[in-house]
Amino acid sequence: MNIYVSNLSFNVQDEDLREFFAEYGEVSSAKVIMDKFTNRSRGFGFVEMPDNAAAQKAIKELDGATVEGRAIKVSEAKPREERSNTGGGGGNRRPYGGGGGGNRW
């Protein structure tokens, strides 16, 4: 089962995340998501546990737990939704009318 963990302290690293969940069962992976520009934690991560019962227990007991002074949120990770290219995002709109420009010869 894939588990989503948010509201993490920026000091929490992959190994810390693994340790939080290891007391509930086997952890196949633990990853804190890092900002690709600043290389700092983005404050959330994912943990994978092969045993669903252990994962459910970890979610139940760790959701709301305080880690480094922050109440973390723990839930089952939802699959990423594909971003569609439909709707929104009008291209190149300018806030101030068009550039009519008349005949200036």
Describe this structure in words.
Strand 2 and strand 3 (41-48) form a beta hairpin. This protein has helices at 14-22, 52-62, and strands at 2-6, 29-34, 41-48, 66-67, 70-71, 73-76. By secondary structure, it is α+β, with helices and mostly antiparallel strands. The longest helix is centred in the middle third of the chain and has 11 residues, at 52-62. It has one domain: RRM (RNA recognition motif) domain (Alpha-Beta Plaits). A 4-stranded antiparallel sheet has the order 2-3-1-6, with helices on one face. It is globular.
The CATH architecture term is 2-Layer Sandwich
The helix/strand series, from N terminus to C terminus, equals: EHEEHEEE
Discrete helix count:
2
Question: Can you tell me the residue ranges where pLDDT is under 50 for at least 5 consecutive residues?
Answer: none
Distance between the termini: 71 Å
Q: Report the structural category.
A: alpha+beta
Total E-strand runs:
6
Strand residue percentage: 25-35%
Radius of gyration: 22 Å
| Percent of residues in helices | 10-25%
What fold name stands as the CATH topology?
A: Alpha-Beta Plaits
Strand order of the largest sheet: 2-3-1-6
Mean pLDDT across the residues is 86
CATH superfamily (homologous) name: RRM (RNA recognition motif) domain
Q: Give the quaternary arrangement of the chains.
A: single chain
Biggest sheet features:
4 strands, antiparallel
> What is the number of domains?
1
Which CATH class applies here?
Answer: Alpha Beta
Envelope shape: globular
